[in-house]
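Below is a filled-in request sheet from our internal design queue. Each sheet records the structural input a requester submitted and the sequence that came back. We keep these sheets so that new team members can see what a complete request looks like end to end.

REQUESTER: design group, bay 2
PRIORITY: normal
MODE: inverse folding
CHAIN LENGTH: 457
BACKBONE (tokenized):
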């Protein structure tokens, strides 16, 4: 049985796995990445990138419908779904090629095949055994369903939703979290009737309540229907469509049901538990430095409980590579990882919500300012409304930023630096923001919290 040895073996070549490999190779370590499908994983092939391409096509559809408002005469004719697919696949193919070249240029060995942990730091792929001085598990996640809710036919997950070769006339979306509202937004822009079903009281329920409520208003205005605080009971399907029954007896009829109720860790049947890796509801248990209970075996990405985001996986991959190289990297707090929901309007946040800040510091120690985009010229120009809320500790740093509005995601880069560096609004106030930009809205909130509002009361 052929044996291969490396400083690091990475099981899974998605965001977490390939980031580990790239950083490790920079640090002079020899690395092998074992991947059963395509490097780039969920994010590149079935997640972040293709969905954002779809959302961009959706934005163009909306812009062509609304063009007259801006003095441009155009008519929205229809969605050429094959054209949308070609555009989306073109982006993914280009990024995939780029990633493959990068891994090759960095001298990283990519091993194609399904790996199984056989103990210690050794993985078996077919007849080969690959051993690392260290092993990093990065096998990612899958679309979950609910107990008793069978996937298949007209009951689909995001994987099938991306592959649809038609625009459904009517869709029901189970789950008002990130993936659910993004697809709802795309389909509405493409002309579908959409109903979202969410068991919790709000859409994007993990966000600051003010953002959830603003998104609900915006979706209502767009004609996206939603049912909140009501749980799914059952679904039936036939040749024409699905009928979803809710616990309150209501029914929703649609052509398709998208199940977007979260993602489970992909950790079963890969020899993890047999090798002594502890799992908790399927997630790999690690310490705060991402080390499992087995010496020299680490885990990164969606299999580690927490925010399932590609940039968290990148960050954890970089962290583990540096940890193995003995660089003692800094732990990034989960709350300080930026979060964006790319529907229209976008929802973006970093740090603590006001409620969490109050829990942590006490009500008398927390101040916040909610700046309406109505006061921001660039937002008016591009025809968006919304707000940006900044939460600070009194006489202390900014601990949270929460925004809603078109293109809000682009602002979160600045916000995360402010939160991550624990800057005080008074520190930031002298750094003015270019005019006219949406960044000014963030600047205005910082100015207001520093006691010197400009275009605000
Ligand atoms: C529809 C959708 C939209 C999303 N949009 C965003 C977004 O906009 N922004 C964002 O930050 N995140 C987004 N995400 C989440 C993001 O895709 C994940 O957080 C990220 O891909 C997790 O990276 P990972 O490395 O942990 O796992 P993955 O990317 O899933 O990679 C795991 C890899 O391991 C391989 N693998 C698994 N088991 C084995 C085995 N036994 N042997 C060999 N290989 C194996 C898999 O084939 C896969 O390639 C989205 C996800 C979805 C589904």
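RETURNED SEQUENCE:
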């Amino acid at each position: 049985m052929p044996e291969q040895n490396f400083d690091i073996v990475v099981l899974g070549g998605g965001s977490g796995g390939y980031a580990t490999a790239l950083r490790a190779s920079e640090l002079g370590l020899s690395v092998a990445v074992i991947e059963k499908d395509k490097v780039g994983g969920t994010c590149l092939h079935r997640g972040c990138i293709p969905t954002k391409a779809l959302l961009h096509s959706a934005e163009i559809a909306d812009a062509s419908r609304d063009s007259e408002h801006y003095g441009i005469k155009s008519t929205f004719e229809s969605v050429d779904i094959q054209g949308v697919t070609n555009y989306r696949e073109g982006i993914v193919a280009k990024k995939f090629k780029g990633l493959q070249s990068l891994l090759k240029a960095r001298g990283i060995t990519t091993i194609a095949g399904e790996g199984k942990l056989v103990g210690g730091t050794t993985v078996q792929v077919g007849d080969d055994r690959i051993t690392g001085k260290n092993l990093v598990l990065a096998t990612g996640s899958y679309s979950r369903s609910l107990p008793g809710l069978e996937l298949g036919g007209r009951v689909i997950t995001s994987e099938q939703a991306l592959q649809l070769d038609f625009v459904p006339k009517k869709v029901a979306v189970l789950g008002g979290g990130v993936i659910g509202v993004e697809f709802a937004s795309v389909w509405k822009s493409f002309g579908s009737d959409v109903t979202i079903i969410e068991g919790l009281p709000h859409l994007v329920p993990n966000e600051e309540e003010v953002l959830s409520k603003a998104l609900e208003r915006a979706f209502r205005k767009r004609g996206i229907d939603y049912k909140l605080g009501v749980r799914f009971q059952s679904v039936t399907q036939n040749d024409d469509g699905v009928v979803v029954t809710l616990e309150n007896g209501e029914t929703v009829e649609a052509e398709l049901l998208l199940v977007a109720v979260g993602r489970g860790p992909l950790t079963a049947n890969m020899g993890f538990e047999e090798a002594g890796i502890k799992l908790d509801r399927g997630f790999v248990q690690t310490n705060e430095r991402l080390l499992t209970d087995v010496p020299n075996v680490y885990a990164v990405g969606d299999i580690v409980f927490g925010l399932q985001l590609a940039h968290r996986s990148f960050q954890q991959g970089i962290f583990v590579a540096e940890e193995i190289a003995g660089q003692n990297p800094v732990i990034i707090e989960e709350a300080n990882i930026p979060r964006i929901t790319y529907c229209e309007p976008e929802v973006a946040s970093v740090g603590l919500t006001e409620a969490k800040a109050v829990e942590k510091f006490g009500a008398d120690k927390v101040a916040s300012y909610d700046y309406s985009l109505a006061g921001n010229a660039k937002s008016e120009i591009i025809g968006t409304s919304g707000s940006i809320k900044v939460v600070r500790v009194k006489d202390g740093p900014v601990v949270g930023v929460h925004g809603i509005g078109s293109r809000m995601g682009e602002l979160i880069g600045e916000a995360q630096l402010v939160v991550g560096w624990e800057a005080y609004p008074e520190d930031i106030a002298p750094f003015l923001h270019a005019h006219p930009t949406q960044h000014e809205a963030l600047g205005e909130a910082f100015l207001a919290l520093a006691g010197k509002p400009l275009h605000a009361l």
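SHEET NOTES:
- The first helix runs from residue 15 to 26.
- The longest strand covers residues 128-137.
FILED BY: M.R.
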